[in-house]
């Protein structure tokens, strides 16, 4: 982490059971509150709530990019099996230009069990899906040169494929999340700008970060932000009920939440993806921006060796 800099704060806002108006309202509220980015989900139907309304990941990202000025936009995470890499590369470059360079590629090779078969997509074992993602990452890099590409892979064949325009900065930052030492972390070390450690992998944080290469570290947390100390038990219970199985849960007053995030910052975490127990109500985002973000950035604790 650069001297004098603080961690990034991203709102994780799965685009489900909300209108586009509500989604963009919360994105603008996050930007006004001082958040650095917003991350969406990528599913045909919300996990666990298949009948709930939800919107396409890339269309929603475009809507947010068009209604904000500085907020970075990404996903936790796009599923590589859902799109041909040439299609996704064209979508990424379009979002990159639409946003003025604010789009990031958050991508993974997994999905909720059964989702691929339910929606008629090929079902492959983990090793093959991981290999597919690696090949797609190579295809992205080749297409982003803007030169004609001939590519012979296990999954993709290109002949004279040429992408124009190319990303504004020549490439698009890559975020890879997960905790698999055998299949995921080698991809992180080879291709990622950021490794996102999900809550379920916190108990292996120290061993996994050694496998992340030069990738910067982010973590993902459900957050219950209580207004007063008296509200903490109720807010904690609500957060646990909604997200308790995720791992990494943080709940308490603004001071409690800031202290927990500052501890993680001190252990080398440079970005936080946060999903709030009230799904990012603008008032909660404003209070987080006013009472939590400044405390964490002012803590400026030296990075330690690992996460407790």
Number of helices: 11
Query: Could you tell me the mean pLDDT?
Result: 93
Count of extended strands: 12
- What pattern of helices and strands is seen along the backbone? EHEHEEHEHHEEEHEHEHEHEHH
Percent of residues in helices comes to 25-40%
Terminus-to-terminus distance: 19 Å
Q: Output the CATH homologous superfamily.
A: Luciferase-like domain
Shape: globular
- Which range does the strand content fall in? 15-25%
> Can you tell me the residue ranges where pLDDT is under 50 for at least 5 consecutive residues?
none
By secondary-structure content and strand pairing, the structural class works out as: alpha/beta
Could you walk me through the main structural features you see in this protein, from its secondary elements to its overall organization?
By secondary structure, this protein is α/β, with parallel strands linked by helices. The protein has a single domain (8-299), classed as TIM Barrel. 38% of the residues lie in helices and 18% in strands. The chain has helices spanning 20-33, 57-67, 85-99, 115-118, 126-143, 185-191, 205-209, 232-243, 254-266, 282-291, 293-299; strands spanning 8-12, 37-40, 72-75, 78-79, 105-108, 149-152, 157-161, 174-177, 194-197, 216-225, 250-252, 271-276. The longest helix has 18 residues, at 126-143. The two termini are 19 Å apart.
């Amino acid at each position: 982490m650069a001297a004098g800099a603080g961690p990034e704060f991203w709102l994780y806002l799965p685009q489900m059971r909300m209108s586009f108006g509500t989604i963009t309202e919360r994105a603008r509220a996050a930007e006004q509150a001082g958040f650095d980015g917003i991350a969406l989900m990528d599913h045909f139907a919300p996990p666990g709530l298949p009948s709930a309304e939800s919107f396409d990941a890339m269309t929603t990202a475009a809507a947010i990019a068009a209604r904000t000025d500085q907020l970075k936009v990404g996903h936790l995470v796009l599923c590589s099996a859902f799109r041909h890499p040439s299609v996704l590369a064209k979508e990424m470059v379009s979002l990159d230009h639409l946003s003025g360079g604010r789009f990031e590629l958050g991508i993974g090779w997994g999905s909720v069990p059964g989702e691929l078969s339910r929606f008629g997509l090929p079902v492959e074992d983990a090793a093959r899906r991981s290999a597919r993602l690696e090949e797609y990452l190579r295809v992205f890099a080749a297409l982003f040169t803007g030169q004609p590409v001939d590519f012979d892979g296990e999954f993709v064949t290109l002949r004279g494929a040429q992408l124009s325009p190319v990303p504004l900065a020549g490439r698009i930052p890559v975020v890879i999340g997960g905790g698999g030492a055998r299949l995921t972390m080698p991809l992180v070390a080879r291709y990622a700008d950021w490794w996102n450690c999900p809550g379920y992998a916190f108990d292996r944080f120290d061993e996994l970060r050694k496998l992340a290469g030069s990738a910067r570290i982010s973590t993902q947390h459900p957050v219950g932000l209580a207004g007063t100390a008296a509200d903490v038990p109720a807010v904690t219970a609500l957060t646990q009920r909604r997200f308790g199985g995720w791992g990494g849960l943080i709940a308490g007053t603004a001071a409690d939440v800031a202290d927990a995030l500052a501890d993680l910052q001190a252990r080398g975490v440079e970005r936080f993806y946060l999903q709030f127990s009230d799904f990012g109500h603008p008032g909660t985002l404003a209070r987080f921006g006013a009472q939590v973000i400044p405390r964490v950035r002012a803590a400026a604790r030296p990075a330690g060796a690992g996460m407790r």
